[in-house]
Design brief:
The protein has one domain. It is about 50% helix and about 10% strand. It has seven helices and five strands. A three-stranded antiparallel sheet has the order 4-3-5. Strands 1-2 form a two-stranded antiparallel ribbon. The longest helix is centred in the C-terminal third of the chain and has 28 residues.
C-alpha cells in the first residue's frame, strides 16, 4: 500500500497561517498520522485499502481528494475535497501537541522554532485553538460525508454506515507540553 501525503504544508497555508520556518518533515509526520487515524474510519477498511492501491486514479478518488462540483436536488454543489478537512485536522493536532506560539501583542503563529518575541501558548489557549480547528474540520467532514452519500454508486466499497471519527478523543489524550 503506497501511502502519500494528501496535503502539503503549502496547501495547509491556504487555510491557516503557518510560519515559513515550520519544518516540512515535522508537518508531514502529523499529516501521515491524521490520514491513518481518520480516513480509515471515515471510509471503512475496504475502501481505505482500495483508495491507497489506486490513488491517484484520474477519476473518483481524485475527485474525493481534490473536490468537484456535483448536483444535489437540481442544484450545483461545490465539494472542496479531503484537503481542507485534513488541513484542519492537522492544525488541530499541531495546536494541541504544542507547536503554537504567540506574541505579547496578540498574533499567533504555528512554528517549531520559537523566536525571541514568541512564547508557547498556555494549555487553555491551545485547547481553544484546537476546538476552533476541530469545528472547521467537522464542517468539512460533513461536506465529505454528503459528497460520498450523493455519489455512493461511485464508491461501492464505502462502508454502508458512516462512522464519524472520534477525533477529539484521539488527540485530546496527547500529553500537553
Amino acid at each position: 500500500m503506497a501511502e502519500t501525503q494528501l496535503i502539503t504544508i503549502t496547501e495547509a497555508r491556504t487555510y491557516v497561517d503557518i510560519s515559513p520556518n515550520y519544518a516540512v518533515t515535522r508537518f508531514n509526520i502529523y499529516v501521515t498520522n491524521v490520514q491513518r487515524d481518520n480516513l480509515r474510519k471515515l471510509m471503512g477498511k475496504q475502501m481505505y485499502y482500495d483508495f491507497w492501491q489506486n490513488y491517484p486514479d484520474g477519476g473518483v478518488y481524485d475527485d474525493l481528494v481534490g473536490g468537484k462540483v456535483y448536483e444535489l436536488n437540481g442544484e450545483n454543489v461545490q465539494y472542496y475535497g479531503l484537503k481542507p478537512y485534513l488541513s484542519y485536522l492537522v492544525m488541530a493536532t499541531i495546536a494541541l501537541e504544542g507547536d503554537y506560539y504567540h506574541a505579547d501583542y496578540g498574533n499567533a503563529v504555528f512554528t517549531d522554532n520559537p523566536q525571541d518575541n514568541l512564547v508557547k501558548a498556555m494549555d487553555r489557549r491551545r485547547i481553544e485553538m484546537y476546538d476552533r480547528y476541530m469545528q472547521k474540520a467537522r464542517e468539512y467532514e460533513e461536506d465529505v460525508l454528503n459528497f460520498l452519500a450523493q455519489n455512493s454508486t461511485d464508491y461501492p466499497l464505502l462502508k454502508k454506515e458512516f462512522q464519524k471519527p472520534d477525533i477529539r478523543n484521539q488527540i485530546i489524550t496527547a500529553t500537553l507540553r
